[in-house]
Amino acid sequence: MCEEHQAGIGRRAVFLTGAAAALTLGSVSFASAAEGGRRQTRTVRGTLSPGAPDFVYVPVEVPDGVREIKVAYSYDRPTVPAGTTGNALDIGIFDERGTELGGRGFRGWSGGARTEFFLRADDATPGYLPGPVREGTWHIALGPYTVAPQGLSYEITVTLTYGEPGRAVRPVYPPERAKGRGRAWYRGDCHLHSWHSDGRRTPAEIAALARAAGLDFINSSEHNTHSAHAHWADAAGDDLLVLLGEEVTTRNGHVVAIGTDPGTFVDWRYRARDNRFGRFARHIRRAGGLVVPAHPHATCIGCNWKFGFGEADAVEVWNGPYTPDDEVALADWDGMLVASVRDGRGWIPAMGGSDAHRDPDVLGRPQTVVLADGLTREAVLDGIRAGRSYVAESAAVSLALTASGGRGEHAGIGERLRVDQDTPVTVRLEVTGAPRCTVRLVTDQGVLHTTSPLPVSGAGVVEWRTTPSYAAYVRAELRHEAAAGPLPGALAAFTNPVFLGRR
Fold first, then answer.
1. Which numeric CATH code is attached to 396-503?
2. Predicted TM-score of the model (pTM)
């Protein structure tokens, strides 16, 4: 059986409130097992026009006795002129509990990474949640990421298999603690992808690469799904802490949820104008996690951050190989630091993450190095939240930035040196693993001290003297040699600030 959906706005449309614009089409129905046999298939076709809603739902009436639901889809990719977006159609599914924003019906999302998926009680395609296929109205969720001027024609094939359900799988999650070294600097990568979203690596392969890169912790951050949470237990160990989270991929930017409770799902179906992000930022924090806007100045469609930073616990300033959009993010973050000292309010720490998906993406380039009381979920998140961290391009690079007063006062990265405004302060930076890199000390006035390139050994010590009245904070940058022109070289590392003065 085949049904046609001409999905123009206004035809069988139900616009959901409280979320990005959505459209619900006519339903797809199946006979009972007694009437239709062991397996039944239905195919629907339709066309989406430019300007289509962010989400289009295809209801599927699932009868009793279904063991497995399988969905396959395809869509056309017409040629478009240079500079014009072509067709890209994402897909996922919600079960009989519905599509309510933040509701319980979510059963999986693969975006544009897969052309088919299945779910049953004992197993599911990566990106999807195993569990019973209960009777009721399910919804296939289509996300027209971009639509060509000619429109987007799609075809969806749904296959139901009847029979006794398999035995449900009880999820096992990784432990929230690894062996660690007590209070120490721990290296981690909080933004990466496995085959549970659009990555190509398994959790086991990622864990092996993390260990090879000298990482102590990683964070599961799949696009718009938490299906990977139950697949990290075997990859974790005394030497590797695995935090659980999600990359919440909206149409107005991406945010990484870091270190949430196991099984936490964070909805993404809203834009900045819907005024819903605050609700889900609070949801992340209630689940014990951190809210970290990712690659805020990335140039891909929908990747640029539009929600503001009022709900951010940290911000991902450096994403993957260092590029001009990272340079813009760094400058923007520094501007936020200046505003925080000017207005006497709290500041937002910076992070970095590899956003690694597949070969040749390098896990841990860059990595966030955190001073934590132990290698535990709570301690690592506390360190990130407090800004006791720096970002480095690899485990070869180590930094130690301190500020001291004349009477033994001392402060490190993310801390405040509480001395009077005119007290002489010595800023000291120790570096290893950065051959021929230039050190820059940056304050609320800008770059106030630059060194000659470090020796080929990559090690060096830099001291600089100032006062809190002259510099409200000091942070360090390590820069590679510039290829040409007035712009600085790519980052090898940078620190969060040390604040100077009593405030």
1. 2.60.40
2. 0.94
